[in-house]
């Protein structure tokens, strides 16, 4: 390229670009423009917050509804939604065959898997002393106790009904004033020799579910409410089986040593020690 041609290209470039050392020149983009967040399709914080609160509210409603169904044994919606419960086998033979054989399937055990089952503590947590409780567990059968509509029913962990009796639990006897929403659900260990239900945990007390509450609160709530009914520990005509809440201890070295060397708080043999994290809830059972 010749020198005149080079000069022409330089002039054209100078006319096309304007370079200025003036701060915040209006000919240039706004200096804050590059600091703006890139727009996305995600909802803003307010919308996301409202959605989270709505999900939390719905989840809370599900817990309340689930406990109500367990207490009142009302599973009509679940049965109606299960279209497989009715099977028309002879319909395959043709419309001319009128003698249909309808097979009713066995309804599922709705009370199955409602208890938190334990597993071996293989590794000792680093926060064992600060964030865990230990509960001595007696030998016996794990039971879900449901007190509602003036009677108390005990279910096995597999959902089988094994006993029906009156009790002093809220909603568990016809001697009490039967009210809607007055029901109690407890996680227990049943000892046949002394006719006692040892209460490990509470799912609901007097219509107030605590499935989504932390262990620390559930244990406090259980001990507090059980102490309000002293007759519940005594066997009588209207309370043929006694209910005793099991104590919990912090997992400190001295507490564990004292627990293992002192007599157990029950007359039956010790089955083992159960460790509960203070911040866990029972939502996994729903």
Characterise the protein shown here.
- The protein has 286 residues and is an alpha+beta fold.
- The chain has six helices and twelve strands.
- It has helices spanning 3-16, 45-72, 76-81, 128-131, 215-227, 253-261; strands at residues 86-88, 102-104, 132-138, 141-148, 151-156, 161-165, 184-191, 196-205, 208-209, 242-245, 249-250, 270-277.
- The strands form three sheets. Strands 4, 5, 6, 7, 8, 9 and 10 form a seven-stranded mixed beta sheet that branches. A three-stranded antiparallel beta sheet has the order 11-3-12.
- A hairpin with a 2-residue loop joins β4 and β5.
- Residues 79-108 have low confidence and may be disordered.
Quick one: overall form? elongated
The chain-level mean pLDDT equals 77
Secondary-structure-derived class: alpha+beta
How is the main sheet built?
7 strands, mixed
Topology:
Layout: H1 3-16, H2 45-72, H3 76-81, E1 86-88, E2 102-104, H4 128-131, E3 132-138, E4 141-148, E5 151-156, E6 161-165, E7 184-191, E8 196-205, E9 208-209, H5 215-227, E10 242-245, E11 249-250, H6 253-261, E12 270-277
Parallel strand pairs: 8-10
Antiparallel strand pairs: 1-2, 3-11, 3-12, 4-5, 4-7, 5-6, 7-8, 8-9
